[in-house]
Every structure is written in C-alpha cells, then in structure tokens.
Amino acid sequence: MFKSFHGNTIKHVKARLLLIFSIIALVSSFLVFFPFSMYLVINEDNQIGKHLASFEHIATEHYTLIQDDFAQLSPHVSAYYSETALPERVKALMPFKENGITRHRSYFADGFVVFHSTFTDIQGNETPLYLTIDARAIEFGDDGWHVLMLISFALIVFLITFLRYSLQRMFDGLMSPVTELSHQLQHNHNDEFSVSERSIDELQTLTKHLNEYKQMKERLARQELMFAKYASHELKTPIAIVLGAANLQGMKDDPVFQAKQRDRILVAATNMHATVEVLLSIVKQENASEAGTMRVVTENEIPLDKFRTKLKDGVELNLALEPKTQLNLPEPVLAMILKNLINNAIRFTRQGQITIHIDSHTISVTDTGCGLTGSTETEHGLGLLIVKRLCQSYGWDFELKSNPERGCTAQLCLHPTSKHCATHIGL
Questions:
Q1: What is the pLDDT of residue 104?
Q2: Strand order across the beta sheet in which 70-72 lies
Q3: Using CA atoms, how far apart are residues 425 and 292, in angstroms rounded to an integer?
C-alpha cells in the first residue's frame, strides 16, 4: 500500500507531496472547524442560560397565584420553590450560587442547567427559586444545526479534494518538461533535447546547456578519433624506419653501410621519442604543472638544416628569433609545434620563402604558398590538430589565416588572460 511513497522518481515525489498536502489541509481544516463548532456550542449554551434566567419574573408571579412548590412554566422550564421539591439529580449538586447559573454536563443529552435566586412572597417570607431546563431541550437559530455542521464538513472535504486535484494538475504541468527531458536523455541519443516553450526559464537554460554539452561531446569524440588516427600514422612511420634499417643491417657487413643504418635508427627513435613525449603530455595532461614555467629559447632548438633539406628549389627558410625570448613551452612541445607548422608550409610552398618568427608573445610561420582553399585541413602528420591541442594545454591562441598577397600565416599568441603567462606579462 505504501510502496508508491518510496523512491525518488517524479511519481513517488508527487505521491508524497499530495499526501503531505492532504494531511496539512485536514489539520488546518480541523483547527478551523473545531474552534468554530465549539464557539457555536458554547454560544448556544450561554443563550440557554440567559433564556432560563429570563423566567425569574414569570416564576415569581406564578408562585403568587398558585402557592405551590413546583410549577411547569414552559415545555422545557421547571420552577421549584423549595429544596425538598427538587429532583434527586438536582439536589446532588447543591448548594447553588444565588443569582447564578449552574451547568451540569451541559454539552451532553442528559445534562441540565439550574438558575437559583430568592424572592419575597406576598406574606413577606423569603422564598427560594430554582429554575431548571435540560441542556439539549431547545436549540437556538436553525433547527437543523447538526445538518448545517455536516454540510460545513462536507464543504471542507470538497474544498480539500478540489485543491488536491488542482495541486496535482499544477505539479504535473510543472514536472512534465522534466519527465520529457528525462525520457529524451534515456532514449533520444542522436536528436537534440527540447522542452516546451512554456517551460520555466531554468529548464530551458538546462536544455540549452545539455545540447551544448552533447555537441561538445560529439566534437571531442570526433577529435579523439582523428587524434588517434594521426598519432598512429606518426608513430608507424619511425617504427617502420627502425625495422627496415635493422633488417638491412644484417644484409651487409660494410662499416659505412652499418653506420648509415644506425644513424637512421637513431634519428627515427629520437623523433618517435619526442612524439611520444608530446602525446603523453596531451593525453595525461602532465604539462599542467609546467605550463606556467618560463624558459629561454635558443636557435639550437630549431633544426633549420633538417627542414631545408625538404624545401623545393627556389624556396628559402628564414628564422627571426627575438633576443632573450622566454616561452612556457617545453622543448619537445615547441619542437612538435614548429615541426607541424613548418612541414605544413613546406608542403604548400613551391616558390618564395618561409619565415619563422618567435618572440615571448607570438610564434608565427608565414609562407608564400597557395594559401587557404576554404578548408584548414592542411595538416602534415599530426598537423594542426596537435598544434591546437598543445595551444589549449599551455594557454595559447591558434589562428590560421590567408595573407593579403599570397600564402598564409599560422600564428600562435599567448592568451593575455591565461594564468600561464601571468609571471611574464605582469598580470
């Protein structure tokens, strides 16, 4: 019976809310109905007492006429003119306060009310007077008082039921968008979340953020897939070189040939080591503690001769490194960024020049190639994806844009609000 009240679903919460509301409504109704009923009963009892006292003059006049110890003044009012004439149930309550009203079980059917006084008869004697009436003998006002009370109680029950139904409808209307949103979270994996325009602003804001988080999740999933594909390609190349050179070493005993294969293995292993370091730095976010450390950059870190061997005829490679340049990029990270940007520029530049500019605030690679063709997917190896991820990790902004005349520029700018550069630019 009470299982529906346990749990935290909307159905269970609504059941508990309606139960609590019903209890509060019943208690509140009782606190109003009971005092009101008691007021009516007490007021009626006081009116009976006043009605009984109003017969004092009639009882005195009646005694002058009949000179008897008992008189029935009305269908409900009796007069006694001596203690011996009183009924036993009245005698049991003696003595009575003179000129006062005494009530005995006045709220019950067998109760009665007594009014006691004295008067002087025509012979000059002090005569006691006792007026009695049954407590429930007469009702003042509407003869159907009990029916009126039942109608009032029925009206209260109706109001409670109506308000409970209204509360249920209001709760259902309020929780309907939440239920709908919960259903969409469980079943609609591909569609966007939506709620009614009449929903409260907070639910609409929540829905908007859920859609944004969903889009971000999907975008990150695609990026991770692309990242894994590019990382696989970048690592497979040096591994293939190492395996090939190792196999070739066993074919000849020529020292020169052996040395050449060892050099190929060392270069491929070194490149692979640098790539793995950068990948681990991104995936594990181990660079978080190093992101704020500034270091001086030297030209020895940039192997221009290695890049010049890849240039096409008629293309020059120049480096402009500002003196005392300090960056928060570790050497393997800077090498990976420059490698991808420079290789990307070499790939699309057939004549002219490629210029590398580095200072404490910016890193740029400008070429005179074919420029952007409407898509920025011009990566080489890990390419621009790796560059973007590294920029995010170390607080840099990345932008790839076309030059006014020809070619394009890949530019990294240290974010002015980033905590990583606070020690350098005095923020």
A1: 84
A2: 70-72, 77-80, 126-134, 112-120, 100-104
A3: 12
